Hints:
Rossmann fold, seven-stranded mixed β-sheet, 9 strands, binds S-adenosylmethionine, methyltransferase activity, transferase, SAM-dependent_MTases_sf, S-adenosyl-L-methionine, Methyltransferase domain-containing protein
Amino acid sequence: MPRVTRLGGVEQTRTLTPRTAVIWAVLRAELDRRPGEQLTVLDVGGGTGGFAVPLAEAGHQVTVVDASPDALAALTRRAAEAGVADRVRAIQGDGDALAGLVEPATVDLVLCHSVLEVVDDPAPVVAALVTALRPGGAASVLVAGRAAAVLTRAMNGHLDVAAALVADPDGSAGPRDTLRRRYDADAAAALLAAAGLVVEEIHGVRVLADLLPAAVADGQPAALLELERALAARPPYRDLAAQLHLFARRPA
Length: 252
Ligand SMILES: C[S@@+](CC[C@H](N)C(=O)[O-])C[C@H]1O[C@@H](n2cnc3c(N)ncnc32)[C@H](O)[C@@H]1O
């Protein structure tokens, strides 16, 4: 359902979905803390620019570091179509090698969405995010939730896969799993804390959306969005979400 939202002082029309609404609410609150400022944003594994381009449209300077040249080409096209090519920089590179790509302690807001579950080793990537941040800068980190994966596999009849996800220390179902790891809220928070970040908020993203029959999700999108918003910060619902969003800060 198209909604007009305010994002850092710029009116924008976008489609708010259970996949994005909670994250945008957290990011908007951070942007609103610094009205009128042009922030330096780094989106690690930012892909085709689903977050980077709207942030540039809101007036911020965004660098996307991504391993995929195809994703970066799509990002560049999207930024040009949106008229913000001058505020979006695309860099091909690895998340754990940011130090050579981005000046340390220069970034106000770093995004790392749906990346830590696919990289070889998440700890150096998180350490690199922290190094890029200015003291007082914020990190928006989105990871796959383990509990939701167990429940959905079991409900679909794949009890062996569900059991493997429970038993595996990293929450992966093995070599054929598309993700190398999944998190619960405590483990994700501990990963960020170990790198020196202070976790301020944890939200569940898609608590219900993936569990509902399509007829319900498609038939009542506004009600679903409201319910997702109501549940996102509340354990135990939060902890059953398909994804966990952590908002953290490098101490000033
Ligand atoms: C699932 S997509 C997520 C894209 C975007 N962040 C989003 O939430 O829509 C994962 C992205 O991470 C990138 N990626 C994977 N491993 C990476 C690495 N080691 N360093 C940088 N980017 C990586 C992929 O190319 C891909 O664009």
